[in-house]
Amino acid sequence: MEFSSKLLENAVYEMSQLPSIGKRTALRLVLHLLQQPKEQTDRLAFALQNLRSEIKHCKNCFNISDLEVCEICSNPMRNRKVICVVEDIRDVMAIESTGQFKGNYHVLGGIISPMDGVGPSDLYIEPLVDKVKKGEVEELIFALSASMEGDTTNFYIFKQLEGVEIKVSTIARGISVGDELQYADEVTLGRSILNRIPFEQSLKG
Amino acid sequence: MEFSSKLLENAVYEMSQLPSIGKRTALRLVLHLLQQPKEQTDRLAFALQNLRSEIKHCKNCFNISDLEVCEICSNPMRNRKVICVVEDIRDVMAIESTGQFKGNYHVLGGIISPMDGVGPSDLYIEPLVDKVKKGEVEELIFALSASMEGDTTNFYIFKQLEGVEIKVSTIARGISVGDELQYADEVTLGRSILNRIPFEQSLKG
Questions:
Q1: Which chain A residue's Cα is nearest to B15?
Q2: B99 shares a domain with B46
Q3: Pick from A79, A158, B121, B136: CA 20 to 30 A from residue B111's CA?
């Protein structure tokens, strides 16, 4: 792509550094900003820089937060002895939006993925193990992706906790609500049969 | 979407103001920036703000430019008497990349579209008409989208030039190079028969 303007080329280049934004999309976005009032560009630039420089990670659960300790961890109505282990803030938001969970979270900041060069030491696994070993936790709920990497991470943490008396569970894998059996993949369907639940239990919630 | 952080919420909101970027995509992009070095965010913010405040429109062709007069207009090797009328800078870039055009451009900044509230006075049509009436132009080549709006804009400019002696042409519409006839739409195919060219001419270029 040949640009007639260095300023434009530079802006398009920086925009195209974002994931799944190619050169063409970046050009479209940047030209859009040029057609809008200058204030919109200023607000976007300020919001991004402000976020990057001011944002903190909650020192308890490592979730993204404006404060030293996030709103969830500092909420006295929530059960600190039940901890849901998730990958990142999007999972916290997804679980929060169900309204079904009243414990605390622990955000790992990723999952173990040798292919991407992410090992256990790149994640907040140690603080979690410490917390559990101090006896502060009664139940750990793994809520990671149902992938090889997610399963590896679950298993790695589980092994770290050998000998510690604690209830460890993982969220149920099964047929999505509203899904038809004939279209479900066999692994999910197989797991949903193995992990079947008492019918009375399924009537709740 | 419920955010645990106002800073994050604000950044996602501003990002989602860009076209075709929804809240979820915006969140993904912003979280990506958070995982990268701070410098990347700074560079992006600076590039956008710098572009928005420093960019100029060439006072001759109204293309986006770093200078008062763009590189194409100030190039003495190009024919100023042949002007290609386009919608925006992306069309200039597309035509330039063919290497087939050695004239100048005139960027309208859009096309007439009553549905979007864009009338002739919102576009750089008057300066083009002035240029032509001063006798500075020998040929005008319309290279706008093959849409209702494009055709309307072509026709509007053509009417403005009534009585002025000038050659006005429009880029050829026809079957794309490499396309199969059976899959071409009938309007394009029909036009390509009406506007057939001498075979000898098709052997060139």
A1: A44
A2: no
A3: B136
CA-based max dimension of chain B: 69
Strand A79-86 to A103-107 pairing: parallel
Query: Is residue A96 assigned to a domain?
Result: yes
Query: What domain range is A26 assigned to?
Result: 6-54
Q: What is the pLDDT of residues B65-94, one digit of tens each?
A: 999 999 999 999 999 999 999 999 999 999
Q: Are residues A157 and A86 in the same domain?
A: yes
pLDDT of B193 over the 90 cut: no
Residue B160 sits in a domain whose CATH number is 3.40.1360.10
Length of chain A: 205
CB–CB of A14 and B43 under 8 A?
yes
pLDDT, one tens digit per residue, over A37-90 is 999 999 999 999 999 999 999 999 999 999 999 999 999 999 999 999 999 999
- Same-domain check for residues A80 and A163: yes
Domain count, chain B: 2
Interface test with B, best of A9, A18, A24 (most B CBs within 10 A): A18
The residue in chain B having the minimum alpha-carbon distance to the alpha carbon of residue A21 is: B29
Residue B62 lies in a domain: no
Same domain assignment for residues B95 and B44: no
Query: For tokens 């990670």, what's the residue?
Result: A57
- Give which of A118, A120, A124, A131 is closest to A62, Cα–Cα: A124
d(CA B34, CA B44): 13
* Residue in A7, A54, A70 nearest the CB of B4: A70
Per-residue tokens: A167:
């209830």
Asked whether residue B47 is assigned to any structural domain, the reply reads yes
Query: Model confidence over B112-168: pLDDT tens digits?
Result: 999 989 999 999 999 999 999 998 899 999 999 888 999 999 999 999 998 888 999
User: The domain spanning residue B33 has which CATH number?
Assistant: 1.10.8.420
pLDDT tens for each residue of A142-156 = 999 888 999 999 999
Per-residue pLDDT at B197 exceeds 70 = yes
Query: Could you tell me which of B22, A19, A93, B4 has the C-alpha nearest to residue B13?
Result: B22
Is residue A110 in some structural domain?
A: yes
Which residues 6+ apart lie within 8 Å of A131 measured at CB?
A83, A106, A137
